[in-house]
Structures are given as C-alpha cells and as structure tokens.
C-alpha cells in the first residue's frame, strides 16, 4: 500500500438543534453496511467534525480510492442509498453548491 492521500470535505446541516442532535446520534451507530462500503472503497480513515451547523470530513484514502468509483458503488448499493436519503433529511447543501452536491472538497491552503 502506498502513501495515504487526505481529503477534507464540507457540508452544512439544517440549523436546528434537535435535527443536529439526531444527526449526531445516527453517527454514534452508523449502519454496518455503510461502514463496510466506506472501507471497501479504499477509505482507510474517516472523521467528521462539527461546529454550529457546519461539518468537516477528513478522509485518508489508499491508492484504490476515487470519488468516481465510490459514487458508482454507492449508486448500486440500496443500503447506502437508504442511508444517504436519511442523512439528506438533516443535511443541506453549502450556499455555493451545484444542485444535488453534498459533501464538497475543500482546498488546502496551508501545511506545516
């Protein structure tokens, strides 16, 4: 396995305390099929952070990962589609997102 590549992505949540709390609860017990699909895609590590209603996801991926392959695999996985539909009830696109865009890659502007 080569070096891991890191991506940081952002997304907003519906700005409602109860909705945010429910979203966090779902992430304390992510469905096993979802965890499996994440790992199978080449994602070695994933963390999600929140401040207010803004989310930031950090992914470390191996050489087998691509956003295109992940998207195709997700589209063919009914359980992932079910999870995404549920999550979308808590999430909202970033103000500058194109129609249907959810998690958007962030640009790295500094590294020590």
From TrEMBL:
InterPro entries membership: Carb_Metab_Mutarotase, Dimeric_a/b-barrel, Rham/fucose_mutarotase
SUPFAM superfamilies noted in UniProt: Dimeric alpha+beta barrel
One Pfam family cited in the UniProt record for this chain: rhaM
Domain of life: Bacteria
One GO molecular-function entry: racemase and epimerase activity, acting on carbohydrates and derivatives
Protein name: L-rhamnose mutarotase
Origin species: Flagellimonas hadalis
UniProt lineage: Bacteria, Pseudomonadati, Bacteroidota, Flavobacteriia, Flavobacteriales
């Amino acid at each position: 396995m080569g070096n891991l590549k890191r991506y940081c992505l952002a997304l907003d949540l519906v700005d409602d305390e109860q909705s945010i709390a429910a979203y966090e609860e779902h992430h304390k017990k992510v469905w096993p099929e979802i965890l499996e699909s994440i790992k199978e895609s080449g994602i070695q590590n994933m963390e999600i952070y929140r401040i207010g209603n803004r989310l930031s996801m950090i992914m470390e991926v191996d050489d087998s990962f691509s956003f295109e392959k992940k998207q195709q695999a997700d589209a063919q996985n009914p359980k992932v589609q079910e999870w995404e539909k549920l999550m979308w009830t808590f999430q909202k696109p970033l103000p500058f997102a194109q129609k249907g865009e959810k998690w958007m890659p962030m640009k790295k502007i500094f590294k020590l």
